[in-house]
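Backbone-to-sequence.
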C-alpha cells in the first residue's frame, strides 16, 4: 500500500449483535495515543443498536441459562484458548489503541484477559448454597441462585480487554447474557474478541458488543427497561448519572470507581524495596490505573532520604515509544487527558509546590514518529497542602505527591482525608502497626509491604466515592445471580 493510501486508511469497527457483525451509519474517530493520529473508526451507536442487542440477549437467555455450569465453563475455557492462540495480535492492538507499552500489554493486560475466563469457568463450579432444617415444623429450607437476565456491562479505557473480560466472564459463567459497551477510545481488542466467539462455541446473542459514547450508547443501555443489572467501571461522576438513570427500574448496580490512594511509609520500612515498589505503584501504565498511588506520606525522620532516592528512581522510569521494550511507560490516552493531567502540575506550581522531576522539568526525547503523541514523564511533587485539588482529586496520570508525617494517628487521618477509599499501601516491619492501620484506613484494599498482589477469589472494590459493591469470586457470583429461598414442608 502506498504511503498516501496508508494515510487515509482507517480500521473500521462494527457492532457485534446476535452473533453477527453489523455496520453502523455513524462513526467516532479513535486516535493512536503514541502518534496523535486517527487510525480507527468506532461505531457511534445509540438507542437503535442497543435495543437490537438487548433483544438478541433476551432471546438467547433461556437456552444459555439452562446449560449447566460445566457446559458454560467449557465455552469460557475455549475462548481463553483462542485469546492465547492470538496473543501477539491482541498485545500489539492493545498497545496501539491505548498507548500503553507493548511490554505492559504482554505481561499484564492480555494474559489476565484470558485468565479471567479460566478463573470464572472454574470458580462457578465450586459455590455452595444454604440449607436449614426446621424439624419441629416439618420443613426444610434451602437457597438457590439464578441468573438475573441481560447484564449491561460498561468498561473503561485504561485496561480495555482486561476489565471487559473481568465483567463478561462472571456474567456468562453464571448463565446471564450480556450487552457490553467498551470505551469508545479503546474498542479494538473487544472487536477482535468478537471474532473468536463463534469458534469458542458462544451461541448468538449470549455476548453482544455495542460500541459508542457513554452519552448515547451507554445512556441507552443503562436506561433500558429489559436490562436489570449494570456493572460499570469508570469515573464517580458517570456513576452518579448511571445511578440516577437506573433508579426508576431498581436495577442491581456494581460501580467500581476512582481512587486517590495513599502510601504510608514508616521509618522501619525496607526502603529499597519500598521505593522500587512505590515508583511502580505510582507510575505503572502511565499512572492510568485506579489503584495507582498518588499520595505518599513518609515518616519525617526518613522523609529527606526517601524523597531524594524516590526522585532519582522516578527519573529512571523511562517514558517513550510503546513499542520500545526499554520503556516503562507509553502515552496517555488522549490529548484532552494529557492537558488535564498537566493542569494539575501547573496548579501545584502556582500553589508554591516543588516539582522535582517530570512535567516542566525533564525533557522527553521522543522519536520523530511520536512527537505528536500524548507523553508525559513521571512527575514528583512536594510541598503541597492536603486541601489542594492536587491532593484531593483523582489525576489518573503519572503524578504523585510526597509529604512528611509525624505520628501514626496523623498518617491515618491524612490517608483518610479524601472522598475516595479504593486502596492504600502501608510500609512497616511492625506487625502490630500494619494490622492497626489496615483496620483504620478507609479503603477496600490495603496492601502492606507490597502492591497489586491480587487473589481473584477475594472482594475487589472501594468505600466512599470509590464505588458500590464488590467484584471477585464469590462477590461476582452473588452480583450476577439472584438468591431465592425455598421452603419444603414434608
Amino acid at each position: 500500500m502506498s504511503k498516501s493510501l496508508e494515510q487515509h486508511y482507517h480500521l473500521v469497527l462494527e457492532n457485534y449483535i446476535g452473533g453477527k457483525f453489523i455496520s453502523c451509519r455513524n462513526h467516532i474517530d479513535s486516535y493512536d495515543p503514541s502518534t496523535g493520529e486517527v487510525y480507527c473508526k468506532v461505531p457511534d451507536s445509540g438507542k437503535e443498536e442497543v435495543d437490537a442487542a438487548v433483544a438478541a440477549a433476551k432471546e438467547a437467555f433461556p437456552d444459555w441459562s439452562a446449560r449447566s455450569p460445566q457446559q458454560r465453563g467449557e465455552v469460557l475455557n475455549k475462548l481463553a484458548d483462542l485469546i492465547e492462540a492470538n496473543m501477539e495480535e491482541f498485545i500489539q492492538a492493545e498497545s496501539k489503541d491505548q498507548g500503553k507499552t507493548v511490554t505492559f500489554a504482554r505481561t499484564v493486560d492480555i494474559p489476565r484477559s484470558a485468565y479471567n475466563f479460566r478463573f470464572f469457568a472454574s470458580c462457578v463450579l465450586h459455590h455452595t448454597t444454604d440449607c436449614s432444617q426446621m424439624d419441629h415444623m416439618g420443613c426444610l429450607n434451602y437457597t438457590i441462585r439464578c441468573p438475573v437476565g441481560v447484564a449491561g456491562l460498561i468498561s473503561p479505557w485504561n485496561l480495555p480487554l482486561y476489565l471487559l473480560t473481568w465483567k463478561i466472564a462472571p456474567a456468562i459463567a453464571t448463565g446471564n447474557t450480556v450487552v457490553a459497551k467498551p470505551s469508545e477510545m479503546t474498542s479494538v481488542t473487544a472487536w477482535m474478541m468478537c471474532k473468536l466467539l463463534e469458534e469458542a462455541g458462544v451461541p448468538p446473542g449470549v455476548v453482544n458488543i455495542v460500541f459508542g459514547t457513554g452519552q448515547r450508547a451507554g445512556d441507552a443501555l443503562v436506561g433500558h427497561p429489559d436490562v436489570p443489572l449494570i456493572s460499570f467501571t469508570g469515573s464517580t461522576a458517570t456513576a452518579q448519572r448511571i445511578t440516577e438513570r437506573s433508579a426508576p427500574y431498581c436495577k442491581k448496580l456494581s460501580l467500581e470507581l476512582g481512587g486517590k490512594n495513599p502510601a504510608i511509609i514508616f521509618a522501619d520500612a525496607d526502603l529499597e524495596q519500598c521505593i522500587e515498589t512505590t515508583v511502580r505503584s505510582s507510575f505503572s501504565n502511565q499512572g492510568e490505573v485506579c489503584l495507582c498511588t498518588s499520595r505518599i506520606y513518609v515518616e519525617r525522620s526518613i522523609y529527606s532520604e526517601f524523597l531524594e532516592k524516590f526522585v532519582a528512581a522516578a527519573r529512571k522510569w523511562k517514558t517513550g515509544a510503546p513499542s520500545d521494550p526499554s520503556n516503562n511507560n507509553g502515552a496517555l490516552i488522549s490529548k484532552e487527558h494529557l492537558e488535564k493531567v498537566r493542569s494539575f502540575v501547573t496548579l501545584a506550581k502556582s500553589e508554591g509546590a516543588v516539582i522535582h522531576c517530570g512535567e516542566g522539568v525533564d525533557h522527553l526525547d521522543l522519536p520523530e514518529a511520536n512527537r505528536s503523541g500524548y507523553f508525559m514523564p513521571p512527575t514528583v511533587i512536594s510541598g503541597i497542602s492536603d486541601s489542594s485539588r492536587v491532593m484531593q482529586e483523582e489525576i489518573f496520570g503519572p503524578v504523585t505527591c510526597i509529604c512528611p508525617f509525624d505520628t501514626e494517628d496523623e498518617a491515618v487521618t491524612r490517608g483518610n482525608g479524601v472522598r475516595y477509599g479504593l486502596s492504600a499501601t502501608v510500609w512497616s516491619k511492625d506487625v502490630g502497626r500494619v494490622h492497626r492501620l489496615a483496620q483504620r484506613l478507609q479503603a477496600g484494599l490495603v496492601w502492606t509491604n507490597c502492591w497489586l498482589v491480587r487473589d481473584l477469589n477475594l472482594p475487589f472494590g472501594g468505600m466512599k466515592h470509590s464505588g458500590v459493591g464488590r467484584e471477585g469470586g464469590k462477590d461476582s457470583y452473588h452480583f450476577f445471580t439472584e438468591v431465592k429461598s425455598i421452603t419444603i414442608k414434608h
